[in-house]
From TrEMBL:
Protein name per UniProt: Cellobionic acid phosphorylase
Origin: domain of life: Eukaryota
Keyword Iron-sulfur: no
GO molecular function: carbohydrate binding; hexosyltransferase activity
Length: 924
């Protein structure tokens, strides 16, 4: 929405109008847009000039229409009726008069005056706010652009942890709107090339990353050489209140535009498709309308690389900073493992700088990062770092004419030696190299564009489903969370998503996973993806659920591809015996049936799907209610596959065993209104009405619906209890109330902070299982409500509370809504989650109702009752389906193709390359 106006040619002292009587012929400009007219005023050139509209969302230049009518006073062309952000002022009318400073008093006395009595410059630079608009302070701070392919945030403080991420099969970088970054690469285990300034512990990616002043980041300082004034982009470390801020996250790059003191800084981050490097473009433009002398200081801290050996220096031959280290080790054999690691970090400059600094403390000095001592001098010190914390800082001293710009390119990343650095520079460090890399990487990301496009009444949802959700699904299946030993359940579910993106990848994943099946039929806790990989972290703890995920994920793959030939593929020999995929699945089901106690309940060992539930069964007796009913569901799914393969006796066997498992589950876990979660080693049932903390858990209810263990009567009791006890404005929690203290017969899940992670958060993986189960029983309104709550927004209050852009689904939002409402809904900012493939599946098979079977595509949309119609484009088995889905006076779903009703709402004999236009009627 428009708030500030200034001329293109000059920077006079314009005053925007306000306070005049409202008249009916004014065009109001609400949040959605409007029209503008400009008076020529004292300078006739404005008749054909470009005027600038500062929306608090970035400055937009708009040509002045030749036939515009300029009105004043009560005939004012436009009235602003909303307020903006980033220094936005509130006016109730806008008559724009361009006046020289000496003419301002006359303007105020005539047709237009400033009701705030504060000049444009003071509003613009001091970011003055008015009481009347405080309730609108975040208006329009976030918006999709470029047909939804980008998201822009216009405040660095409203959502300080808002971030974006880029990846390829060798690296990943997650970076915030304020410039803090976390990056890692594979060699083959995960490693870093930018570190904290202190020693870091090696761990997997953590939720709710806490950022601090010396956290690794990518920054640019700008110093006015004449006044000494200083600011930094994107926002850290100086934290100056800039005049314009735009953080723009795209699918294949991340950009910032920051303007302050009449200088605009544009930063662009991209990465290559196949190499490990960050490609940075930094453009500086003089927008002040007068000549300027400034210094530009890119500052990329490298941090504490090694307690054994670290240093840094500027290499004039290579053209940048090179920091070197030796990865610490103790065992002699580790020397040989580490011998060829990329222990150097480089920061290469296309344009030679005037000066540089490689010693972090010399750069920071006594001023701190918000005012580094090194910037007080004419040039940087040119120091090397000798067993000191290294950094890469360079300086460009430049004189800029009005509107002049300078562009710089930098390469940042790890290397084994100087020869590799030189090769990387030759490949990328040029305008042409950057352009080719950007084009190649955009093509690489486009490979994950997905198979679904929707047009619904919820445009924000459309944007997420069409542009961003498949990107997250693609990330998971493409790189397996950048680990060499993904948990088996994660590996299978992440690749389930690839059934919809790149089915051949999903197919290969089944073969890799089953190739590591144990002789007993059990699946390992992790899948080893590289030679020499070892099970680490949580994969060293015994879990009992991994076999369940084989038929669960296969169900999606077969529905999407119809590729039953996979089942006849041969697997590597186990103990001298050769098996087919089909036999491997059957062995896994037999293992699940064997891993039960005398009651027919599934042992939990030191965890099931809930990793930190590690003390329910560590003595060897505890059982899992969820795993018991999940076993039944897996058996039912596998029985269906057996039936299709003509093995009716085997199908009958597994269905009978599933019925037994469901019966045992009902006998020991039904608590009157919901199912309990488990039984401890000491035979204590938990997750019941008697419990204070952890009274009701979502997963047992969900999977009892999927397996058919819950009768209609039981569901009628369960669902209201879920709504009453687990629902929040940010989604449905994993259980409630969260544990407030350690419970030694349940485990470390009870020690996590209440409402965080698995201790009663809105754990989206559990929530999407529940949503999927709701679609399985046709409860479309409940399903849609919770599905929509997974996505931040659409209100700005919700965006701010969650603190995350709507470009991915995090693994959780904070729970403990009733205990700690201030933090409830806060995003973990962790995009590694098995949630995303299930969400995509729910949109495709649930809401849109487009699921494949042996013969073709079955159509059964489940729109929320508030929607009358949607349009869907679905890519399926090489064909394109365009569906117009509308409510009509029909009793059941009716599908027409070429004006003929399709029997059973199913289209068969699908031809690759064909386009099918379908008219779908659903009951009102």
């Amino acid at each position: 929405m428009p708030v500030f106006f200034s001329s293109f040619e000059t920077l006079p002292n314009p005053f925007v109008g306000g306070g005049l009587p409202v008249s009916t012929n004014r065009t109001k400009w609400p949040v959605g847009g409007g029209a503008v007219a400009v008076q020529p005023g004292w300078y006739s050139g404005h008749q054909t000039a470009t005027f600038y509209i500062n929306l608090g969302l970035g400055t937009t230049g708009v040509p002045l229409p030749a036939n515009v009518t300029q009105n004043v006073g009560d005939q004012a062309t436009i009235q602003v009726i909303q307020a903006g952000t980033n220094g936005a002022a509130f006016y109730n009318c806008v008559d724009i008069t361009f006046a020289a400073p000496e003419n301002v008093p006359a303007v105020n006395a005539t047709n237009c005056f400033n009701s705030t009595v504060i000049s444009f410059q003071r509003i613009h630079y001091e970011r003055r706010f008015f009481e009347i608009q405080t309730f609108q302070i975040y208006a329009k701070m976030l918006r999709p652009t470029h047909s939804g392919n980008r998201y822009e945030l216009t405040s660095p403080t409203a959502m300080p942890k808002a971030d974006g991420f880029l990846w390829n099969q060798k690296m990943m970088i997650q970076i915030t709107c304020r410039g803090y970054a976390t990056a890692q690469f594979m060699q083959p285990e995960p490693a870093k090339y930018a570190h904290a300034p202190n020693l870091e512990g090696k761990t997997f990616m953590q939720p709710e990353q806490n950022y601090y002043s010396h956290h690794p980041g990518r920054f640019v300082y700008i110093k006015d050489e004449e006044s000494g004034e200083l600011f930094s982009a994107p926002y850290e470390p100086v934290r100056a209140k800039v005049d314009q801020f735009v953080f723009s996250v795209g699918k294949s790059d991340i950009q910032w535009t920051v303007e302050h003191l009449g200088i605009r800084v544009e930063m662009n981050l991209s990465i290559p498709t196949h190499d490990v490097a960050e490609l940075w473009t930094i453009k500086v433009t003089n927008t002040s309308g007068r000549p300027r002398k400034i210094s530009v200081y890119p500052y990329f801290p490298i941090g504490n690389m090694s307690w054994m050996n670290q240093s840094a220096e500027y290499d004039e031959k290579l053209g940048g900073v090179v920091a070197s280290s030796v990865t610490p080790y103790q065992k002699a054999e580790d020397y040989f493992k580490n011998k060829y690691l990329k222990d150097k970090t480089y920061f290469m400059c296309e344009t030679p700088p005037n000066s540089w600094e490689t010693r972090q403390q010399a750069f920071e000095g006594e001023g701190g990062l918000h005012a580094p001592s090194a910037l007080e001098e004419t040039e940087l010190g040119g120091n090397d770092a000798r067993y000191e914390i290294p950094a890469a800082a360079v300086q460009y001293r430049i004189a800029l004419k009005a509107n002049e710009e300078r562009e710089y390119r930098f390469l940042f990343g790890p290397a084994f030696d100087e020869a590799e650095i030189s090769a990387m520079c030759g490949k990328y460090l040029s305008k042409e190299g950057f352009a080719k890399s950007a084009s190649d990487y955009a093509d690489y990301i486009e490979l994950g564009r997905g198979c679904l496009h929707i047009e619904t009444p919820d445009k924000d949802l459309d944007n997420f489903v069409n542009n961003w959700l498949p990107r997250q699904v693609y990330y998971h299946g493409d790189v397996n969370r950048l680990t060499t030993d993904p948990q088996t359940r994660n590996y299978l579910q992440d690749n389930m998503g690839m059934s919809f993106i790149k089915p051949k990848v999903a197919r290969k994943a089944f073969l890799i996973a089953l190739g590591q099946q144990e002789a007993t039929g059990a699946m390992p806790d992790g899948i080893l993806l590289t030679e020499g990989a070892e099970l680490k972290y949580i994969n060293q703890i015994p879990h009992t659920d991994h076999c369940v995920w084989l038929p669960v994920t296969l169900d999606a793959y077969l529905g999407e591809t119809g590729d039953y030939g996979l089942l006849q593929e041969k697997l590597p020999e186990v103990n001298g015996k050769s098996y087919t995929v089909f036999e491997g699945f059957s062995r896994a089901m037999d293992w699940l049936l064997a891993a039960r106690d005398e009651r027919g309940l599934s042992y939990i060992a030191q965890g099931d799907w809930c990793d930190p539930m590690n003390m329910v069964g560590y003595k060897g007796k505890g059982v899992s209610g969820w795993l018991t009913v999940a076993t039944a569901y897996a058996l039912i799914l596998w029985a269906g596959v057996c039936e299709h393969q003509g093995k009716s006796d085997l199908a009958k066997h597994y269905r009978a065993r599933a019925q037994e498992v469901n019966g045992a589950f009902n006998k020991y876990f039904w608590d009157g209104e919901w199912f309990a979660r488990g039984i401890t080693d000491d035979n204590v049932v938990f997750g019941t009405q008697k419990d204070g903390d952890g009274r009701i858990w979502l997963n047992p209810q969900t999977w009892s619906i999927l397996s058919g263990a819950a009768s209609a009567e039981q569901r009628s009791k369960m669902l209201p209890q879920i709504e009453k006890q687990l629902d929040t404005p940010y989604g449905v929690t994993m259980f409630a109330p969260p544990f407030s203290k350690m419970r030694e017969d349940v485990g470390r899940v009870t020690q996590k902070y209440p409402g965080s992670a698995e201790n009663g958060s809105v754990y989206n993986h559990a929530a999407i299982f529940y949503i999927y189960s709701l679609y399985s029983i046709g409860d479309s309104d409940r399903a849609y409500k919770l599905l929509r709550q997974m996505l931040p927004g659409p209100t700005e209050e919700d965006y701010v509370q969650r603190g995350q852009l709507p470009i991915y689904i995090p693994n959780y939002y904070r729970g403990a809504y009733h205990q700690y409402p201030r933090t409830a809904g806060r995003s973990s900012q962790l995009f590694n989650t098995g949630t995303s493939p299930w969400v995509y599946r729910c949109f495709i098979e649930g809401l849109c109702g487009l699921r494949g079977d042996v013969d073709g595509l079955v159509i059964n949309p489940q729109l929320p009752s508030a929607w009358d119609a949607i349009k869907v484009t679905r890519l399926f088995r090489g064909a394109r389906f365009e569906l117009d889905i509308r409510r009509a006076k029909v009793k059941e779903v009716t599908v027409k193709h070429a004006d003929k009703v399709l029997p059973g709402a199913r289209i068969k004999n699908i031809q690759q390359g064909a386009t099918y236009q379908l008219s779908v009627s659903i009951p009102q």
